[in-house]
Structure formats: C-alpha cells, structure tokens
Amino acid sequence: MPAPSASIDLTNCDREPIHLLGAIQPFGFLIAVSTPDWLVQRASANVSDWLKVTAAEMLGRSLLDFIDVDAIHTLRNQLQIVNMTGTTARLFAMRIDDSRRRFDLAVHTMPGLVVIECEPSAAGSSVNASALVRGMINRVQSAPDPRSLSCIAARELRALTGFDRVMVYRFAPDGSGEVIAESAEAGIESFLGLHYPASDIPRQARVLYERNWLRIIPDIEAAPSPIQPALDAAGQPLDLSHSVLRSVSPIHIEYLRNMGVRASMSVSILREGRLWGLFACHHYSALHVGFERRTAAELFGQMFSLLLENREREAESGYENHARELHDRLVQDMVSEQNRARSIATHLDNIASQLTCDGVGLSLDGTVTLHGMTPDRRQFAGLIEHVRTSVTPSGNYATNEIRAAYPLASKFQERAAGMLVMPLSRLPRDYLIFFRREVARTVNWAGDPNKPVTPDPQGDRLTPRKSFQLWRETVSGQSVPWSAADLRIASSLRISLLEVILRLSDQTEEERRRAMQRQDLLIAELNHRVRNILSLIRGLIHQSHDPNLSSVQFMDVVGARVQALARAHDLITADQWGPALFSALIESEAGAYLGDAKRVQLAGPDARLQPQAFNVVALVIHELITNSSKYGALCSRPGTVTIETRLDESGNFIIDWRERGGPPVQAPKRRGFGSAVIERTIPYDINGEARIDFELAGVHARFLIPAEFVQAVDKAAPHRETAAAVAPDEVSMPQEVLLVEDNLIIALDAADALRKSGARDVRAASNVSAALRMIEERVPEFAVLDVNLGVESSFEVANRLSALGVAFAFMTGYGETESFPAELAHVPRIRKPFTQQSLAAVLKRRR
After folding, report:
1. How many other CB atoms sit within 10 Å of the CB of residue 405?
2. Fold observed for domain 556-712
3. Is the pTM of this model over 0.90?
4. CA 353, 356, 362, 364 torsion: positive or negative?
5. Angle in degrees, 0-180, between the axes of helices 836-844 and 744-756, rounded to the nearest 10
6. Would you say residue 653 has pLDDT above 90?
7. Those residues with Cβ within 8 angstroms of residue 805's Cβ, 6 or more apart along the chain or in another chain
8. Among residues of the chain, what percentage have pLDDT more than 90?
9. Identical fold at 4-120 and 129-314?
C-alpha cells in the first residue's frame, strides 16, 4: 500500500490542512482505540515489527488482547491527566506485552479516540529532563543579549541531542527566515547568516510547528508506515496533527535530500503563542534521538522561548518607556496652548522623537508641514492622495516599502522608503506620516529564493530547490520594518493628538487627567501584581523539583499548584480584588481535585480573607487536600475531612483540619516542598500560626489567620455559592452564534466552549465592520460581544442586534459599569476569564 502522503499537495499555502499525512515514522508504531470500549480502530502497518500481531489482525479487537493489563491500567490513569489538561501524556520504559522489551509511549485524545504511540526505549538512556534542562537554562540565561542567548542555546541543544549542526532560525514578517546562530561540527560548512525564502517552509507547515513543539526525522531513507485503514467509516483520515511519530511531506524529504541531510529535528520557538523561529537540527547520517532526550529538548525549547520573550520585552520596554516620557512632556506642553491644532505643527520635531524615524510630514486643515528626511511638498501631496483613495485606514497603517503599493514612491525612496500613517480625522483628510529612509543591504540567500515551477500531470507545482549555493541579492527601496512596539507607541500618540485636535473642554481635560492618574496607578499596581505572581510561579517550579520525580510527574505537580493559585485568583478578582469567602475556597479546591466536595465537611463560622492571606491559605489547602487524596483519609472511600472554624476573642480566624477514616498515619521521613508550604507559609507570609500532627487516626492540623486579614461574615447573611455547572443538554442552545472578539486565541477558546455547549455554527469577527457584515449576510440567533475591541467597542454591534431583536451578552474583563450606555446596562455580562459553564449560564437566562 503506498503511503497516503504521496498525493498530498503542499503548494497551496492558503489552506491549513488538519489531516496532513496518513503515515508515521517507522521507528515506532501507533494504535488508535475507541473510547470507552477500547476497541482498536486504527493501527500502523509496522506494528508487527514490535508486537506479535499485524495491524490488520488488531482492527476491531480489544486492546486488552495485545497489551499487558498493567500497562492498560497505567494508560487509564494518564488519560485522566490528559483529559484535564488537554496535553500529551508521556510514559517511559514501560513493558506493554509479555516480552522483556521496554517502550516509550505518547498518549493523546481526539473526539472518540485515544491515540497511543510507542517506540522502543533506548537502552541506558534514562534522562532527568527537569534537572538537565535546568542546567542548560542556567548556562543560557547568562548571555548578555538575544543573539548571544541564541548562540549558547544552539550549543546546548547540540550537546543534548548529538546532531552535527544545530541552528537558530528566525522568521521575518514576510515568512522568510535567517540563521541567526549556529553550532556545528568542525569542518562543516557554516550556514550562519544565510536567508531562506518563505516558500521553503510553507504557511501550513508553520501552523503545525505552532501546534507541535518538536518534529524529528531519524532517517530520510526510511519508508513511512501507513495507517490502516487509511479512512474511517465516515471517509476521514486519522488526524495526526498532535502525533509525535507523524511522517512528513515527500517534498520535505526531497528538500533534505537535496541539502545532503540524512536526519533532522526541529524544536519550535514561540512568542506569545506565535511561531518566532526554530531550532533546526541536521545530521549527515541516520540519527535517532530517544524519546526521553527529545522530551528534554522540547522542554528546553519551551523554557528558551520564555527566556527569549522576556529579553525582547525588556528591550521593547526600555524603548517604550523613553517614548512615554517624551509623550507625557509633549502633551503637557500642547494642552497649555490656545490653538491646539496649530500646536501639532509647532511641535512636529518633538513628535518625530517619539518614534525611531528619519522624518515626519503633517497634512492638517489643508496645510503641509515637513520635518527631516521626507518627500518634497509635491511628492508628499501625491502620497497623501494615494493614502486617501487607496489605503484609507481607520487606524494606523505601516509599511516598510511604500513603492510596493505606490510605484511613484521610487522617486523619493532614498529619503523615504517606509512610512507609518496616522489618520488625524474621522474622514480621510488629515494625516501625520512618519518616514524611514531606505536601508539598502545585501542579503545572502541559501540558493536562488525563486523556487522553480515544473510541469506536472496535475498542473504546475512548486518543487524543492536543488541548489543551496550562496546567492547574493541587493535589496533596495525598503526601510527598517516597523515593530510591534512602534505601533503601540504610535497608537498611544494618535489618541493624544486626537484629543488635542478635538479641543476638549476644561472639565473634560480635568477628567482625562484624573483618568490618566488612575490608569497610571492601575498599571503600576498591575505590574506589581504580575511580577509578584511570576516570581511566585518561578519559585513554585524551582522548589517543586524532586530528583525522584519523572519529568511528567514534575509537570503535573507544578501544574496542579499553579491551578490552585488560578482558582484562588478567580475568587478574589470576582469581587474586584477584594476579600473572598473561605468557604468558597474549600468548595473550589475540593471540587476541582476530588470531583466530590461532600467528603470535605466545613463547620463553624465563615469569614472573608484579604487577597494577601487568601492566596497563602489557598496553597496550604491545596497541599493538604493533595496529600490527603494520595496518602490520607481522602485516598479511601470511607475517609472524610472535617474543617472546623472559629473566631477567637481577638478576631483571629482559627482553622482546625482533622482527617478520619483513612489508612493509619505515619509521620513522613522526609520533608518536601509541600510540607514546607503547609507548616511555614502562613507564619512566614502573614505572621500567623501553623501546626500539623501526624496522629495514627489521621492528620490533624491547626492554623491561625491574624485578625488584620479577616472580615467576619454575619451568620444570617447568605454565603456566596459556587455557580453550579450547567450541562449542555440543560440549555436551549441557539444553533447559530455570532462571536465578536479581537484576540484570536480567546476567540478560538470561546468558539470551542460554545460548540461544546451545543452550538452548531459559531462565526467569529474581530472588529465592528466584520461583525456588521456577518449580521447582514445572516442574522444569528444569539451573539457574544467582547466590549473592548482595541480602538473601538462593540456597542454599535449591540445596537444593531437590539434593532433586529437578537439576544446577546457582553464579554468583558472590566468590572466597571459606568462605561456602558444606559440602553445596554441590562444586557448580561460574562466576566473574563470565562468558562464553558459561565457561557452556558448566560445563555440559559437569555431573553
């Protein structure tokens, strides 16, 4: 049977394939089983190389017929974690049949399927991923700048994996790439500084790199193993998007063969969830890196991504802080002048200093003012007309090559090759344009960047380049690209200039000044809280390290502790960062960990705890419930935990934790980080008291929360209850839903939640004009509208839906209500971060 990949056409970069290939690498095998029956639905053709059965013999039979019962038990346990986190479970050196062979497993789920991928364990290859990566990161983070950071990272990854060459490959905005760092064996030709065209890594391949952190090809000459059957009963191939064994395009194999590369591996480098670049690893003979070592490489790629993002953000922050200082002084000077529109022209040189630019031009009320390196007045007038008639941006617009859309710009490209356009009026009339001069440069390409087109029976198609010899190109007519930081500074500046032009009243100016002060305070407070929480998470990661834990167990422990903090954060932010109920913490933590909060009984008066104490107590309660579920009363069905509370004479909140009905208790021989959290956090952080006794009948712990962090709750006052989960079948879910959200990741998450609740068709729009267009095309049954869409709000969409009689709800991260128009004040609101339950609850109450 030929590999299904042979007919896949990867030349169409406008589509994003989900089912890329129907074959896997031959160094392992794959079994897809149905849930919950555990009947084998798919298997790879080479499964007989490892087990005493062929793929055809496995189909339709129970997995228990081939896999050891202990291995099945371990897989079921791991699936619980997979279902909770949506990640891939990794198991190392497992025995799965009656032979003595050991296998490394990767397990992930899909709708109705569990996909199990196996490969033989490398003998003597036990790797402590967390300890290994920690040492690598410690060496990398000493680098003084991003380029040095990349060089050291390439060297570390080559030492870990053994490849002949490891490169750090960075993508440009146009999709092309450059090798910015390299570590290679002596005597191998260097690729450092070479550029590769965007067509070498098509867009859909880059999308897959964002989904999967690591891809490996141990031997390009190895024949891929097809999946049997190729299509299911519905005529669909198995989705291998998250497969670690997935084979690759024959075009990519041909590309590597043309380079003389026999084995390769890539590790993604992401920034803010988007592909920033790759660790590209090449070997000139066959090379297989074991699964444990690949797991360490993947973890290193993730940690390096965070470190690189932090370094780049530091550089951007310095640039933006300098611009903000200049901006504040500029605005203060301009607001004190009588003719504010004219003051823009007067301060044009100061305005130009806000951004890294070579010149600036202003067209305001028919008057043109130029400063620095710009087109002349006649050329500038022609450019303004082009912008008005062809670009007409509603917000700022930037390009580093004006002549690409306006050929006449070639006459002044030496002085102004790139521009950032800032509209200063609602109608396309007044503009402020920043210019950057031409930066002519020589680009070293790895071969001719223009890929040849060859005739094919099915038409023309792109083919891999066969030549990678140095090919130099002189690039002209372009400026340095405008960065995301440039665009943020320009957006802030535009808002300020518009305020000046609109000639705000003294009262409005005073309100704006106060609002800016509140914003500065909020930003400072937010910055303080974010830094604290990041430091806390870093401490959790560092302190949770235990040499006895595998990398999977390490990630599970850290993930659970971070989730406990997240749940606590949700409870205190629900009241706008105010005191939260202790009872709500117990319900949230017990329900999240046990699925049955009734085994944890709470008696005594309730109290609200200040945020500082609430986070501390949340970590302590999490560790107590975790330990009890593993070793104490909650690990057996009859066991219970009783939490008695009281307020002493001084107003201190006393918490008495007592376990009963579990196995006999013995004091632990070793004190780990969890024990330190229980015994030391409350005394250390809030000057309280903590004591824990390991009594034979069950653990007994007592804590004192100082009165300064406690607000007593009136017994007559009803306690806030945790919102009950709303099952999808309990909600009369509309089938067609319009979702308006300007952040793609949040939009994807919300769309998934709506579909899981029962919506058939969820259409997403990122701005007002797109949403109104979708409404005119087809009126939805219901709509969810993010209030803040960047430079605009969704109120215009809301008014249109109201006129059509369509029910809708707002989704917002703000707690304030005064910014909502009076006619929309009654509309239900979903607070971010949302859950499927919060979406369903609003839909259930829709009018």
Report:
1. 12
2. Heat Shock Protein 90 (3.30.565)
3. no
4. negative
5. 60
6. yes
7. none
8. 16
9. yes
Count CB-CB contacts under 10 A for residue 572.
Answer: 22
Q: Which two tokens stand for residue 583?
A: 């009872």
In the three-class reduction of DSSP (H, G, I as helix; E, B as strand; rest coil), residue 298 is classed as helix
Question: How many CA atoms are closer than 13 Å to the CA of 638, on its beta-carbon side?
Answer: 5
Which residues does residue 601 pair with via DSSP β-bridges, in sequence order? 642
Average pLDDT over residues 677-681: 83
Query: pLDDT by residue (tens digit) across 686-707?
Result: 889 999 888 888 889 999 999 9
The number of C-alpha atoms within 13 Å of 162 and in the hemisphere containing its C-beta is: 10
Q: Whose structure tokens read 């703000």?
A: 814
**How buried is residue 386: exposed, middle or buried, by Cβ count under 10 Å (0-12/13-18/19+)?**
middle
* Block residue for tokens 């030349």: 11
Q: Hey, what are 433's tokens? A: 């344009």
Handedness of CA 315, 317, 318, 320 (dihedral sign): positive
Domain 728-844 has CATH 3.40.50.2300: yes
Listed residue (675, 669, 594) closest to 636, CA to CA: 594
Task: Please provide the DSSP assignment of 271-288 as one string.
Answer: ETTEEEEEEEEEESS---
Note whether 698 and 632 are within 8 A (CB): yes
Helices 291-335 and 484-501 pack at an angle, to 10 degrees, of 20
Fold of 4-120: Beta-Lactamase (3.30.450)
pLDDT at 98: 83
CB burial of residue 39 (10 Å; 0-12, 13-18, 19+): middle
Q: Which CATH number fits domain 129-314: 3.40.50.150, 3.30.450.40, 3.40.1280.10, 3.40.50.2000?
A: 3.30.450.40
Q: Which residue has the higher pLDDT, 544 or 614?
A: 614
Separation of alpha carbons 390 and 394, rounded Å = 12
Q: Single out the residue of 135, 271, 280 nearest to residue 205, CA to CA.
A: 280
Q: What is the mean pLDDT of the chain?
A: 78
Q: Whose CA is closest to 645, among 594, 717, 581?
A: 581
Q: Where are the domains of the chain?
A: 4-120, 129-314, 556-712, 728-844
CB 609 within 8 A of CB 580: yes
Q: At what angle do helices 506-543 and 551-573 cross, to 10 degrees?
A: 150
Q: How far apart are the first and last CA of the chain?
A: 57
